[in-house]
User: What shape does this take?
Amino acid sequence: MLVFPGFELLDVFGPLEMFGRLSERARLLVVAPAPGPVPSHQGPACVAEAAFAGELGLDVLLVPGGMGTRPLVADPAFLAELRRQCGAARWVGSICTGSALLAKAGVLDGRRATTNKRSYAWATAQGPRVQWVPEARWVEDGKYFTSAGVSAGMDMALALIARTLDRAASLEAAAGAEYEWHEDPAWDPFARMNGLV
Amino acid sequence: MLVFPGFELLDVFGPLEMFGRLSERARLLVVAPAPGPVPSHQGPACVAEAAFAGELGLDVLLVPGGMGTRPLVADPAFLAELRRQCGAARWVGSICTGSALLAKAGVLDGRRATTNKRSYAWATAQGPRVQWVPEARWVEDGKYFTSAGVSAGMDMALALIARTLDRAASLEAAAGAEYEWHEDPAWDPFARMNGLV
Assistant: This one.
């Protein structure tokens, strides 16, 4: 999981809760442009263990959103590293406006993707060559899984677990977290709520 | 929000996401028996800003669960401080096996409460004088809001926001997080899934 100053709390810890339930089948690693304590948009900080650089050997790279994405879309060094790490990872998932970072890095060009439904205009403007999908809980296109806003990251994470391991692991993770998985990627009442459909 | 080594990630960051959406109407404070980095059960650490001691002036004290609760129910100094802080806070919410800590501290005696549905036998054994409710997403009794496992903390947090501020603030927080609030505290498919009803 990538974090950066101003990340959105649930974007990060919802998916980590789900992947964290796979016990020996997954190891979590929190990385950041600068390792150490990284403050969230809401204030509370998490600790990044490693730098977002070099050979990380990631099976899954997860990219959250939050107000901290706003300066990063104008940071060429960050975007170049993100592009490189996306190329190296076997699977890439984004949560909320994390897809704006992927879009600006160019890795979603020509692909279908979604994003936060309140920040839809800003996020989609970061990738004019992306086939943005306004009504979707998450969108899968090749190795990229992009989710809608905040909470949608948990549903996407469970879908990514189902794709990379098996559906039984997703159902077990959801049951253990007493979480009602929205297993249908087309479920998205928030698109209508925000006037996107 | 109280944290301790071995806390469950979503127990902490689900409710903080919801309270964090109240902007100037709430300030988040993460406290721990020892401030500084505190590792979760899953590995990733958060940073506690202050010690769980002294006059914290909390309107709402939130107590998470996780495997880290197991040693704490046998820690008299921690339980005495928890009892004191519960007395001082205007409202107290627990997530998952956080209610086992409240129960062991004695503050739920004679009250209705719920807890995680997989760790139900262990958690309820910590409070023989608590009126445990097996089928509930959360239970409100006086100033205490106790939730079921992990994800249930988000639904409880929104209920606590509705009680302490107003329902509009809860609906706005849920919509902003693209979260489908289970507003009915009786909604609990996990009680049946775990053979409790």
User: Anything to note?
Assistant: DSSP finds eight helices and ten strands in chain B.
